[in-house]
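To whoever is on call:

I kicked off a structure prediction for a single chain this morning and the downstream step that reads the tokens threw a length-mismatch warning. I double-checked the sequence; it's 491 residues and nothing unusual in it as far as I can see. Pasting both halves so you can look.
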Amino acid sequence: MRTRKKRSFIYCWDGDDFGYLPEKASEQELVDKVFSPLVGTSVDTVFFLLGCGHFAEYQSELLKPLGEGQDYHFNNIFTYKRYANVKHLLDQQQDPAEILIRAARERNLDAFFSFRLNDIHDHWAANSDFMPTFKKENPHWLNPKEWFPDFHGRNEMTTALNYSDKDVRDFRFNILKEVMVNHDFDGIELDFMRSPFYFHWDKGLTSTYIMTDFVRSVRELLDELGNARGKTIELAVRVCTTVIGSKMAGFDVEDWARKGLVDIVIAGTGGMNIDTLAFKEILQGTGVSFFPCLYGEYERTASSDEVMRGIAEVLLSEEPDGIYAFNTYPDERSRIELMKQIGSLETLKGFDKTYIVDMDYDYILTKEEWRYQPHLPATLGETVHEGLVIPIRAGEKLDAYSQVQAHLKIWIKDWSAEDKMVFRFNGREMEAPVIKAVAGEYGQCWLTWELNKREIHLKNDVYIQLLERNIHLKRYVPSVVQRINIEVRFG
């Protein structure tokens, strides 16, 4: 019987610190860079990404180090320093994986190996230096690009591995086996969200058995190693924001949990509309814990601390087992204090927050991640009887605070004062808004209203009805709801 540890705050470290260190950094410099930002936080588990699943930032016979692949060239100083620092440590017989595991244990932190099963950062020209040798040597392993038209009709994702091919699955499994045999990690994260192009876009549902077979093989490996070492080695999986979306992409999370294959389920990669209640329902009685993913870059750009606090509070309000921080990048310049705040509802109390409606990406990792939840932008059409209703979640009740200001802010792209519109918040019709400029957006406006703190709930509805579009704009310039925010400021 496996013993699962209780966790509350998982931090995913993605290896970028190798690139931000000085060239040929020492072991101590690496340790300080990784762990200093976690002092004073409630982080209890660190997931270490050592090479994106493409190259090895540890001693390996199966994967080459970054910088030593076929026809390789560096695109920038960042990837060069990432390579130089890993090579420097390995040349001194210091395995970065061992350094990080040892340092984590010294700080009473558990260390997992995070493995991206299908990272496609190598697709973009700016990241072509992440292209691994095994993809160049085995082009038949890659999915045909026409398999993945995105919401915009583009076929651009050309470097995803085809998991229908058993050779692909065997190769990826052997990488995991090598890592876990050679290093005493406390667990593995199978990161399916980097990126979920595993099967033809409409064949995920009929391919779930393939992924279940793969997950079972990893589970058996961890049990075998755990028995030999006298410990439980846990298996975490990161999947789509919804249960049904995950299954449509090929990940039958309920089946994995019921069969005892996994210990931790993490949902999300960049979307904040995570269906925590549905995940908790399918995991009930299995002993499997659930963590929503707090992403570091909402709204297409790096999010403010206020936005990050607001989203963390919303995610934690549905009482998951804890929170998982991804792409948060705490360092001496930013987010040090934020990391101390976002670990629990208690530590978030009384801090300024911005609650937002989920935003679309410039590219979409998978249709399944977005199909079942509302998100912006949304185009408005003229209607007579009904308007658009967009839900927006908020956090703690504000009655206990005497000094608090709250505002509803709506950015309607290319809004005109001649548009005839109706706005309601939780059923209350709003008066004329105060107009404020959208920073960095020429000619764009926030429509702003002050809110009573008592009318803000955990779940809110914003109603927008376009009765009549400006006659000079309606034919060529649509009215688009770009963003909806609730800002809460204390003091």
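Update from on-call: the warning came from a stale cache, not from the record. Cleared it. Sanity check on the structure: The longest strand covers residues 479-490.
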